[in-house]
């Protein structure tokens, strides 16, 4: 009982993943700044932002539905923190595990998007509603390639449990090469999930001020930003666990360091991708996902099906 | 309590998010404000981020004299910002009304409508002056944490 509470609240649960999320946001912003020939924020910037938002006034617009408006950030945050408990970090065993938890992890990663939709919709501001509708429209485009590419890796490993998939690939590192196409597809899809350029259409600040977050202020905004940071870390950690689980074979201390480096490398790749591209329109984004990403994910599925027939 | 207050004040100083609002300026001060936000001056070093919505902002950066048309909107934007909030008036016109003072369509400087924490004169105020003014405003927060704009 106490053990489970420790897992959920301290490590690898809420406290650790929040800290890691804020560090990852700093890495993302620093790399973004350096690539734009700037100095970038100091190392404590994301912590200062978070504490400042906690200390600000909470405004709930009088037109908004106060309950839904207040609950949406909490739902988003708790969903993403839960996913991290099921990801094998550096031991062969995750904090919690059951057969089928990869499906649950993917579905829990969808909940923040729905929470942003609900929060934006119930704040009844025009900009927030536009942003939240775009959020959900985008969801239908990137979710399919993301699920297909991650699940095709699971197909090759012949398991629906993240722990078994990570074990399978860490025992056979060469098999990771077969999934490179799926990794590329899911990186692009993750950009859509995190609402970063070129898929930052839902919070395009030059068009619809801040999208679904327009009416949020103070503590609720802090929770929303934390949820997005943790979503980035959890998404990257999921990719590391499914596509490159090399840390598992190295033992506790070294494995943990390698895992952290791998996750930060995925985050760095994400910020590189968002620096070099500009924002698309929503219809271009949907076209791109269905015309190019989905066929590539299908190709990955086909490759893995054939491999499974040949190798196993 | 003292420690928490100190940490929050520190965070407030290190992370001022700004909202840029033109209250009727000739656009010169706006160009200088935008110039201050470019990679050349890189205000993200000080944690400054330009936000689109008053709900996220801590500092309202106004330029230009307050015209009668914009007066209600300025008050509304100011009231939409969460406490604690600060207003910076950039340029001579927004400090006093400048050459437009006394015009039939002009109310005067920003401080004739909403409370202002820092005045940055200049026609237009240069990016360095704007950064210096904001830095001085933030430094004053550390001395008197209870004082609001």
Number of domains of chain A: 1
- End-to-end Cα distance of chain B: 23 Å
Count every beta strand of chain A, where a strand is a DSSP E run of 2 or more residues. Answer: 0
- Cα-based radius of gyration of chain B, to the nearest Å: 15 Å
Q: Main β-sheet of chain A, in a few words?
A: none
Shape type of chain B: globular
Number of domains of chain B: 1
Q: Roughly what fraction of the amino acids of chain B lie in strands?
A: 15-25%
Number of helices of chain B: 5
Encode the helix/strand succession of chain A as letters: HHHHHHHHHHH
User: Would you tell me the overall average pLDDT of chain B?
Assistant: 86
The CATH architecture of chain B would be 3-Layer(aba) Sandwich
Structural class based on helices, strands and sheet pairing of chain B = alpha/beta
Helical content class of chain B: 25-40%
Sheet with the most strands of chain B? 5 strands, parallel
Number of helices of chain A: 11
Give helix and strand order of chain B, one letter per element, not per position: HEHEEEHEHEEH
The gyration radius over C-alpha positions of chain A equals: 19 Å
Structure description:
With 312 residues, chain A is an all-alpha fold. Chain A has one domain (17-311). Chain A has eleven helices and no strands. In chain A, α6 packs antiparallel against α8 and α8 packs antiparallel against α9 (218-243). The longest helix of chain A has 32 residues, at 126-157. Chain A is globular and about 60 Å long. Chain B has one domain (17-143): 3-Layer(aba) Sandwich (Rossmann fold). Chain B has a five-stranded parallel β-sheet with strand order 2-1-3-5-7. In chain B, strands 4-6 form a two-stranded antiparallel sheet. With 149 residues, chain B is an alpha/beta fold. Chain B is 38% helix and 17% strand. The mean pLDDT of chain B is 86. The two termini of chain B are 23 Å apart. Chain B has helices spanning 2-14, 28-36, 68-80, 92-96, 127-143, and strands at residues 17-22, 49-50, 59-63, 66-67, 86-90, 106-108, 118-120. Chain B has five helices and seven strands. In chain B, β1 (17-22), α2 (28-36) and β2 (49-50) form a beta-alpha-beta unit. Classes of the chains: A mainly alpha (312), B alpha/beta (149). The A-B interface holds A 29, 33, 36-42, 44-45, 47-52, 54-59, 127, 205-206, 209-210, 213-218, 221 and B 7-8, 10-12, 14-15, 39, 42, 44-45, 47, 51-53, 55-56, 58, 80, 82-84.
